[in-house]
């Protein structure tokens, strides 16, 4: 959120995207360590699920916008 306060919108979007990606990678790493699983597949799973959720959110938002 701070990126949107201190940076122009175009730059803030990229900073926000990169910070979110970094945090998802750290989350996946933590999941792998706690669950004693392989790190790379767990990180990819975490980032993939979050990415699909983001895409679904955008698509649902566009669908709702079309109907109202």
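-> sequence recovered:
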């Amino acid at each position: 959120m701070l990126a949107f306060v201190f940076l122009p919108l175009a730059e803030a979007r990229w900073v926000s995207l990169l910070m979110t990606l970094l945090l998802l990678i750290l989350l996946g790493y933590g999941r792998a360590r706690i669950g004693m699983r392989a790190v790379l597949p767990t990180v990819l799973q975490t980032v993939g699920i979050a990415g699909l959720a983001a895409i679904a959110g955008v698509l649902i938002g566009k669908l709702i916008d079309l109907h109202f």
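The chain has a mean pLDDT of 96.
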